[in-house]
Design brief:
Blueprint (H helix, E strand, L loop, with lengths): L1 E3 L5 H6 L7 E4 L13 E4 L12 E7 L8 H11 E12 L4 H8 L21 H10 L2 E10 L15 H14 L1 H4 E10 L1
Parallel strand pairs: 1-2, 1-4, 2-3, 4-5
Antiparallel strand pairs: 5-7, 6-7
Length: 193
């Protein structure tokens, strides 16, 4: 498995022992993965010069493509690194989310320290443009799933008991029924075309 934009290495730790080889790439030179989580760790940008002596069964681009200037070229390179029957997993924030739409109606487009309008995002995606990006990179989409808005984002009180469970259930149902409107992120499963 190849984890592009590995951050602190939580994914590598979670899948340790499930793959014969786990590689992680992280641009932040201060990031240190958990011991034993990765067989190979590269401190570099995902859009930098990377080369691998192997093909990967799974490549994960979780919350990374919106941070690079040319995500199309990153996916084109990923296409070279993935096994012919491999799996690509991509997550991208949904800029057409209801919260962003309401802000726009109110005349606001405010960047934040985290979330959909994270000030480090260079690109923004809707469900359609996310699909176009992945397909344009040489992949056939198997499935697109919308994650729900974290309940505590609109109102912190919704993240505390007794409102946490019903709020999360409501937001999950809304994301399933109206993914383009209530999805927080799109998680895309794809295979080489």
């Amino acid at each position: 498995m190849l984890d592009l934009g590995a951050g602190a290495g939580h994914l590598g730790k979670a899948v340790a022992g499930h793959f014969s080889h786990v590689a992680g790439v992280e641009a932040d030179p201060s990031a240190r993965p958990p011991i034993g989580a990765y067989d190979e760790w590269v401190a570099a940008s995902v859009s930098g010069e990377l080369s691998w002596s192997r093909r990967f069964d799974v490549v994960v681009c979780a919350d990374v493509l919106e941070h690079v200037a040319d995500p199309e070229s990153v996916l084109a390179r990923v296409r070279e690194w993935i096994a012919p029957d491999g799996l690509l997993l991509v997550s991208l924030p949904n800029v057409a989310n209801v919260a962003v739409r309401i802000s726009l109606l109110a005349g606001r487009f405010e960047y934040a320290d985290a979330g959909i309008l994270d000030r480090t995002h260079l690109r923004f995606y809707t469900r359609r443009s996310a699909r176009r990006l992945v397909e344009g990179g040489g992949f056939r989409i198997r499935r697109v799933r919308a994650t729900p808005i974290p309940a505590e984002l609109p109102l912190p009180v919704l993240g505390r008991a007794p409102l946490r469970a019903p709020s999360r259930a409501l937001f999950s149902s809304a994301a399933r029924l109206w993914p383009a409107l209530f999805g927080y992120q799109f998680v895309i499963e794809a295979e080489p075309a």
